[in-house]
Amino acid sequence: MSGDAVIVCKGVGKRYGRKWIVRDIDLEVRAGELLGLIGPGGHGKSVLLRLLAGLATPDEGEVRVRGKNLADIDPFELAELRREYGYLFQNYALFDFMSVADNVAFPLRQAGGVEEPEIARRVKERLEQLGLGEALDRFPSELSGGMKKRVGMARATIGEPAIVLYDDPSAGLDPVTSSKIFRLVRTMHHSQDDVASVVVSHDIDRMKVICDRYVMIFEGKVLFDGPEEAIEGADPMVGKFFFGSLGQSSGAS
Ligand SMILES: Nc1ncnc2c1ncn2[C@@H]1O[C@H](COP(=O)(O)OP(=O)(O)OP(=O)(O)O)[C@@H](O)[C@H]1O
Ligand SMILES: [Mg+2]
Predict the structure, then answer these.
(1) pTM here?
(2) Pairing assessment for the beta strands 34-38 and 196-200 based on DSSP bridges
(3) Which domains does the chain show, CATH number per domain?
């Protein structure tokens, strides 16, 4: 079930140097919906996700979160707002100098209000759920890529945030772990009312099980926005991407 718009993009564009990476993006992320962001590699999904979180600033247009234009709010308010977010970075972005347990506990300690024994309990529980119960005291440099991804997943979800953005949660993971990760995305989504979740993934088959709606980014623009049932009437590229094997590389046919 989806409700009010939590994030609204209007005419959003971002360029690096002279090149527009995304442009003319109109997009809503609504409370209670699980949105799948799809599209070929290098076409702007991660850039868009960073814009949705206020981690990058648009060069055109505006991003509003709960009605507030991110460009107009002061750094303090922005920091407050960011606490509502959970973010799984495509490249993990773990703190190398912190143990796994401290990485995962970080959002809870930042937010304050939770006692250390409770933090320890929650961190252990979440890591066990992701098959990382033994890795509590290890450091990121001692982990495989898939393990780092799962630590990132634990950190993104530990504070039960209201807006969760997952950038390629199952990349590099084996099929069993990938299914576990997608189950966790769904569990987190339903853990409270009105969570807004956005998942970027090439794992279309697993996305199909959990997503309510899809947005396809192609050459930096929104080529499709709607439920699976609407794909048939859309640009053939969307169907090809969604039902075919146009997965990983840009320009494939
Ligand atoms: N900080 C940056 N500086 C310069 N160019 C950037 C930056 N971030 C992204 N880009 C460029 O923007 C384009 C889109 O990148 P993005 O990471 O959003 O792709 P993507 O759709 O997430 O791809 P993938 O599916 O492979 O993760 C690429 O050409 C990339 O080189
Ligand atoms: Mg990406």
Answers:
(1) 0.91
(2) parallel
(3) 1-84+207-247 (3.40.50.300)
